[in-house]
């Protein structure tokens, strides 16, 4: 029987790391755009991100909200290395939701820390990626044929 990883275990992995790769889609060029991003996460697996207002990823999110986020954890021994892929819907957030996002980013994203300390948070967009599904893959398990743990939201 395949190993199943608990939601708590997967969430702990996400909270242990601070960077991941955001994938958005450019409707005009039909290209996928990838960016390394600092992130925060809540207990419902929503991912919080921050970007300058005029970044191409912001237009991509507005025009095509489906997005993916990948977090990679290198562990010793290497067979304990893992990756988490979150597929869902990204949206720009404001008001209380943005304040909450900044709290999730504080201490995890140096740009958020500087923006908060300098009072320049209005120069940035706050993004919430709400999960549709999540795949947790452990490399050692994958090598023995064990399928990833999949969570649907």
In short:
The protein has 153 residues and is of the alpha+beta class. It contains 5 helices and 8 strands; from the N terminus they run αββββαββααβαβ.
Tell me about this structure.
The structure is a single chain. It contains five helices and eight strands. The protein has 153 residues and is of the alpha+beta class. Strands 1, 2, 3, 4, 5, 6, 7 and 8 form an eight-stranded antiparallel sheet that branches.
| Quaternary structure of the protein | single chain
- Note poorly predicted spans: none
| Beta strands, count | 8
What amount of the residues lies in strands?
Answer: 35-45%
Main pleated-sheet profile: 8 strands, antiparallel
Structural classification:
alpha+beta
Average pLDDT, rounded to a whole number, is: 94
How are the secondary structure elements laid out?
Blueprint: H1 7-16, E1 19-25, E2 32-38, E3 40-41, E4 47-52, H2 56-63, E5 66-73, E6 82-93, H3 95-105, H4 110-118, E7 124-138, H5 139-143, E8 149-152
Antiparallel strand pairs: 1-2, 1-5, 3-4, 4-7, 5-6, 6-7, 7-8
Name the features.
8-stranded antiparallel sheet; globular; alpha+beta; single chain; 153 residues
